[in-house]
Amino acid sequence: MRTPLLVAFHGIDHSESVEQCVRAQVARLDKMGGRITACRVAIEAHHAEAASRRRNLKIRIGVRVPGTELLVTHDPRNGVRADHLRAGIVRAFSRMERLLKEHRARLHG
Fold first, then answer.
1. Which residues, 6 or more positions from 105, have their beta carbon under 8 angstroms from its beta carbon?
2. Which of 5, 32, 44, 59 could form a disulfide with 10 if both were Cys (CB 3.0 to 4.6 A apart)?
3. In the 8-state DSSP scheme, what is residue 68?
4. Is residue 28, in this structure, part of any structural domain at all?
């Protein structure tokens, strides 16, 4: 990746362990060889629930590859509960992996 990974936390405290989980998932994507040039990940709480430990969270991933940017938003009907955040991150990155594979298949016929 040419541009350093950007991980942002909105409405929740920064967590080193969550960031490490994100970094591990990005490293997995990078090994796919999809020529990723940049990756941004945002984990955000809905404002009305910012004070609650059981708040619902949204995970957004943006991956730039030559010629386009692929976006995934993981926001189940009721959001991702904070205590299930790592599982939500893995699911969101699985969706991004599928998008990268589809993009690569479109490029190479």
1. none
2. 44
3. E
4. yes
Number of domains in the chain: 1
pLDDT digits (tens, 9 = 90+) for 35-83: 899 999 999 986 654 455 556 889 999 999 988 999 999 886 666 666 7
Band the pLDDT of 22: cuts 50, 70, 90: very high
- What are the residues whose beta carbons fall under 8 Å from the beta carbon of 15, sequence distance 6 or more? 9
User: By C-alpha distance, which of 45, 53, 43, 41 is closest to 78?
Assistant: 45
Residue 30 domain flag: yes
Which percentage of the chain shows pLDDT scores above 90?
A: 52
| Domain span holding position 82 | 6-108
Structure tokens at 30: 């990078």
Domain harbouring 103, CATH code = 3.30.160.100
Place of tokens 């350093």: 4
Q: Residue 76's pLDDT is what?
A: 66
Residue 1 lies in a domain: no
**Residue 81 amino acid letter:** R
In a domain, 15, yes or no: yes
